[in-house]
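ok trying this again, last paste got cut off
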Amino acid sequence: MTHADDAEAVVVVGAGQAGAQTITSLRQGGFDGQITLLGDESALPYQRPPLSKAFLAGTLPLDRLHLRPAAFYQQAHVEVMIDTRVTEVDTDKRCARLTDGRAISFDHLVLATGGRPRQLGCPGADHPRVYYLRTVTDVERIRSQFHAGKRLVLVGGGYIGLEIAAVAAAHGLTVTVLEAQSTVLARVTCPTVARFFEDTHRRAGVTIRCATTVTCIHDSSSTAHIELDSGEYIEADLVIVGIGLLPNVDLALAAGLKCESGIVVDSRCQTSAPGIYAAGDCTQYPSPIYGRPLHLESVHNAIEQAKTAAGAILDRDEPFSQVPWFWSDQYDIKLQTAGVNEGYDDVIIRGDPSAASFAAFYLKAGKLLAVDAINRPREFMASKALIAEGAEIDPTQLSDESVPLTALTAAVTAPAHATFPASH
């Protein structure tokens, strides 16, 4: 803990979930030095998941998006500088330089720079009818055009694209989803889960076109004239692109920090430079559970890494080791995912997809890697413990709903934090 007469200074770059949690954890942990939060948006830190769900739908007001009210930062004695962009991190002089020439000195720096949408690369991608959804400003621009009868084309059938499709369909828009892979959610789910969501959207009137890419976007009477790889054309009043997120590592790279699929951090969220930490969507961290580095984009990951970074600044030895989890809301469907299924060699289905209540368990060499739980919160909760323990499970028992997962949890014999074989 620091003291007023020799107060240390912490600078947090990035005013998102990880940045806000870092501040909270520092103050809760007794840090009484200077804290400066630098954010390049015009809003205080806010939740991003509702942007493609309740906020886009208009059922969640802006003030309820904020992670903390303005009074919190005042009471916590945090200097918040929004609409502020950092141009350089000087690791030698220990300062962050801003676009206006100012330099903010630090003893500890936390990079919570998040990510940015991957851009569509075809000709015409800069068409004025093409949008991306990452910020409050993005949603406000999109929502102003969400009117019944409008033709919306979503490029990308991942979580963001499908969540937007659900909101748009409920608002009476004519919705088409274009996905380059053979199914939606192909990178993150098994075919059974992908088909379930495709069927769900089609029943709601959404057109799903897989194995389809956009080759060009032409201007046509103030609409977007979308050319597909098949040679067909689709007219759209509105195009929203959701084809992935790129970690914001430019500052880190320019500062000489090690970066791979994100800013490389250790188990305490420290970068390759002493006193500089990173947390959230911009990082790559070592997972003791999976035995390999991971780059994840999730609220849970951002919160827990921020706690770890704050703990390291407070000289606490609290290494980061978490089972990742995610969620997605589409219509009346709640998808909860625990773990990372990369490298799975078997999928066990528990429950009935036709009843919109089932779980897909992903195994590798008999060990549980991950679960997709559709309207199955018990399976989701139990699986987190099973994954953390590196559980080996009898697939017959796993698929048998008469065998409670709590019994399987109690029967785990693998040592805690057992790692999985490396993925190939």
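PB: full thing came through this time. The radius of gyration is 23 Å.
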